[in-house]
Amino acid sequence: METFFTPGPGIGGHLREIPEDFSVAEMYQLPPSSDQGRFTIAEVTSTNWETHTLVQALADRLGIHPRRIAFAGTKDRRAVSTQLMSFNGVDDRNLASLQLKDVIVKSLFQSITPLHLGQLLGNRFEITIRGCGPTEDINGLLAPLETVGGFPNFFGIQRFGAVRSITHLVGKYLTRGEFEAAVMTYIAHPILGENEATFRLRQELERTRDFAAAYQQYPKTLNFERLMLERLSRNPTDFIDALQALPKNLLLMFVSAYQSYLFNRMLSERIRRSLPIHQAIPGDLVGVVKDGRLTDQMVPVSVANSEKVNRQIEQKKAAVTGLLLGSESTLGSGVPGEIERQILEQEKIEARAFIIPEVPFLSSSGSRRTLCASLRHLAWNTTEDDRSLGKAAVHLTFELPKGCYATSFLRELMKASSAEDY
């Protein structure tokens, strides 16, 4: 995210001073129920748990492989999250007796089908921004967003790692076939700002490449790193095998994060050029929307059809899209296509790089994503911040479609200069 969409200063402040400041609840798309189903569908409420780490902990408690637990959407750690999960072959009684700190599991019903990533309608948020400056002009800050019916649909910083922003780098190395670099970026690659002891351990591993020693020294909180280190301890040169120790969803997240990084750069450039994100211009690819969801059907925009296409967008039957690069991607033309090609040239990346024969399930054919995220049922009020004398707290509730980031909306309101504020 290289630019802001709205002009002027924001209200400042910071998020997640306590987990309860950031509450997110999925709006479910429930799978069909069946008394004969082997999958238990459950509602899981957690405090201060990142989804992949939570799944690993649940699996450990239940004595099952993490791949027997599926979820519809990933959630941030510093939050109170309510989400749907499916448990393959786990009985209600085992879930009812499960004990895990700050986690409540409520069984709902049995199903013959598990959940799949993306199988949700959206998310409902209740958020408090603390330590804000003057808040008199919130309506003025929101006005440009109301004009376009939303906000720039950037992938939020948590997509890349709030403290260690490396998931897109791992994905970049995977698309280049540089598996050693991908692994070392994840398990080593010390970054200032993370825990000091962890920083030193990563630094030592980067210097020595002693995987066996690192496996013994890394704390159990770095469970994914330890899974890879365990395999590398046995075979120090098989980096593909080390990668495959990770949950499939996490591996897919790496490639997706790199696609997200490219998308963000392209959207930033479009905003920098003062091009609309809620209206189509010649060269755009506009996606057909059915039942409120973007389909795979894309319409190239030309001078001849732009007026008609924009009427469809106003009626919410279509949306302007940006590129999520993959092996079968079609790029735009005109100025939008020029922006896409400019970023790909700067990154030295081509569509065919997303065919990854060594780990075939990581290959991606690509897709498109709406440039403008719709913001629904927004309400807000301000109070004195009871944790920061003389400052204000802003309390917001709103809904977003799936795949859209609350932090990308809040970034426009706060104009925060540091990822630490999120």
Explain the overall architecture.
There is one protein chain. With 422 residues, the chain is of the alpha+beta class. Helices cover 33% and strands 24% of the residues. The protein has 13 helices and 15 strands. Strands 1, 2, 3, 4, 5, 6, 7, 14 and 15 form a nine-stranded mixed beta sheet that branches. A hairpin with a 7-residue loop joins β14 (376-384) and β15 (392-401).
Element layout with pairings:
Elements lengths: L11 E3 L7 E7 L10 E9 L3 H12 L6 E3 L8 E9 L3 H5 L6 E9 L8 E13 L5 H11 L1 E3 L14 H9 L3 H9 L8 H13 L2 H7 L5 H12 L4 H5 L4 H25 L12 E6 L2 E8 L5 H9 L3 E7 L9 H14 L19 E4 L1 E3 L1 E9 L7 E10 L4 H9 L8
Parallel strand pairs: 2-5
Antiparallel strand pairs: 1-7, 2-7, 3-5, 3-6, 4-5, 7-15, 8-13, 9-10, 9-11, 11-12, 14-15
What are the key terms here?
single chain; 422 residues; alpha+beta; four-stranded antiparallel β-sheet; 13 helices
In short:
With 422 residues, the chain is α+β, with helices and mostly antiparallel strands. Helix content is 33%, strand content 24%. The chain has helices at residues 51-62, 92-96, 138-148, 167-175, 179-187, 196-208, 211-217, 223-234, 239-243, 248-272, 306-314, 334-347, 406-414, and strands spanning 12-14, 22-28, 39-47, 69-71, 80-88, 103-111, 120-132, 150-152, 285-290, 293-300, 318-324, 367-370, 372-374, 376-384, 392-401.
